[in-house]
């Protein structure tokens, strides 16, 4: 009676312990609310009295609130779960049977009991674990590379909006000047004091100025919408920006000298190296899986005459047809492809940065020439304005000289924007002022 009582108490405890170690289902319904913030103040990490945002502020908010980054960060949980699964040893198997006596000379029911372990899973265990670890690190590196891209887009859009907004008054002034000139000519044409041939060039110039202003406004609106989407804001939300872009220090010579160490710093290159390491371990797994299926265990049995037998059991697969040759070939090809992908990405990384540095140097030289010529254009426009006020120059000459000043200022702004674009692209590719991944070169190369 005591034994039966103990059994009755132990069984519920064992059952409860088994259930406690199991995962439980929890519902995670999809949201029907649009996950866009209505204002900058509603963003994560935004100050309540934020005021005008600098470019670095925009980058910080983008890294914290970008919807794509938020989703990408959850991939780390998947990779970590896969690594955890790969680190778990295969469970042994337990078999048994109870065979009641139905007829014959026996006196008691027969039974058998056995336990077995798959040895092949133990042979490939370490390689599978290393492959999963490398894959987890690859996901982390890919995430940092995606953060670089988001930060670069935030810098680019914020800088373009700042420069475009700053240059808009020049476009408006040029359009107003030509519009006023065109209005006078149209009235003169109606009075038949000028000919259509005289008016035609001014009409063309006015249309060009209107087109330039409209294009700038369209571009600015599109860029603001893109920036709002990048930050997770509604399209109509207003992002107040500073009047000048603040970017990390830029030293082309230092960047060119650091290209040799770029593979150890670029997250996409580190991710490819980790992917290669994972593929290399998968090849090891495929080769080790050529080891014949081997199951070791032991069993005991009793027949209906109370004769009890026990001993070890061995089950060996015969590799006559399937020697895992297909998986080995797939693993070899995958590793070779990743090796080629890494070489191509490495060549593109260094080549792109080098090309952008050369373009930056060309634009800087062109900008220096334009800035050198600007004072003369401004002096000529100022003198033309004074001469026109004193009736010492006709209106056409005055408009031409002032328009030339506007054109030179617009040229400088266009070159400045192009120069900023190249600088931001280069700094994004080399990771200037951007998050880094905590992986040594040895870890990145081996995945261990």
From TrEMBL:
Cross-referenced InterPro entries: MdtP/NodT-like, OMP_efflux
PROSITE patterns, alphabetized: PROKAR_LIPOPROTEIN (PS51257)
Superkingdom of origin: Bacteria
A molecular function GO annotation: efflux transmembrane transporter activity
Transmembrane regions: none
Pfam families on file: OEP
PANTHER family: BLR4935 PROTEIN (PTHR30203:SF24), OUTER MEMBRANE CATION EFFLUX PROTEIN (PTHR30203)
Family the entry assigns: Belongs to the outer membrane factor (OMF) (TC 1.B.17) family.
Protein name: Transporter
């Amino acid at each position: 009676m005591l034994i039966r009582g103990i059994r009755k108490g132990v069984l519920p405890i064992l059952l409860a312990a088994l259930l406690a170690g199991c995962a439980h289902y929890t519902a995670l319904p999809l949201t029907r609310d649009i996950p866009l913030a209505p204002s900058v103040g509603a963003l994560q990490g935004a100050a309540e009295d934020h005021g005008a945002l600098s470019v670095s502020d925009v980058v910080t908010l983008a890294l914290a609130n970008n919807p794509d980054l938020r989703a990408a960060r959850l991939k780390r949980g998947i990779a970590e779960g896969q690594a955890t699964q790969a680190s778990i040893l295969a469970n042994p198997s337990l078999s048994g049977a109870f065979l009641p006596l139905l007829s014959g000379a026996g006196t008691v029911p027969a039974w058998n009991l056995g336990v077995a372990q798959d040895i092949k899973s133990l042979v490939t265990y370490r390689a599978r674990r290393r492959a999963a670890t490398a894959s987890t690190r690859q996901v982390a590196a890919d995430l940092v590379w995606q953060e670089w891209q988001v930060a670069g887009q935030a810098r680019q859009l914020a800088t373009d909006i700042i420069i475009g907004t700053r240059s808009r008054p020049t476009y408006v002034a040029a359009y107003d000047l030509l519009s006023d000139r065109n209005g006078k000519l149209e009235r003169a044409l109606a009075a038949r004091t000028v000919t259509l041939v005289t008016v035609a060039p001014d009409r063309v110039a006015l249309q060009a100025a209107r087109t330039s202003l409209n294009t700038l406004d369209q571009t600015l609106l599109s860029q603001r919408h893109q920036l709002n989407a990048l930050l997770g804001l509604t399209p109509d939300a207003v992002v107040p920006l500073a009047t000048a872009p603040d970017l990390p220090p830029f030293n082309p010579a230092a960047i060119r000298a650091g290209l040799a160490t770029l593979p150890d710093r670029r997250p996409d290159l580190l991710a490819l190296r980790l992917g290669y390491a994972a593929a290399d371990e998968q090849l090891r797994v495929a080769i080790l899986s050529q080891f014949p299926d081997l199951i070791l265990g032991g069993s005991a049995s009793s027949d209906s005459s109370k004769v009890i037998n026990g001993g070890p059991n061995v089950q060996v697969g015969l590799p006559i047809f399937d020697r895992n040759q297909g998986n080995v070939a797939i693993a070899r090809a995958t590793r070779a492809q990743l090796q080629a992908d890494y070489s191509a990405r490495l060549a593109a990384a260094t080549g792109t940065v080098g090309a952008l540095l050369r373009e930056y140097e060309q634009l800087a030289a062109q900008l220096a020439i334009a800035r050198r010529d600007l004072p003369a254009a401004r002096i000529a426009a100022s003198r033309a304005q004074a001469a026109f006020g004193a009736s010492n120059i006709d209106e056409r000459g005055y408009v031409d000289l002032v328009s030339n000043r506007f054109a030179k200022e617009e040229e400088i702004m266009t070159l400045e924007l192009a120069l900023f674009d190249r600088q931001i692209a280069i700094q994004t590719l080399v990771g200037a002022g951007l998050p880094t991944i905590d992986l040594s070169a040895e870890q990145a190369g081996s995945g261990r």
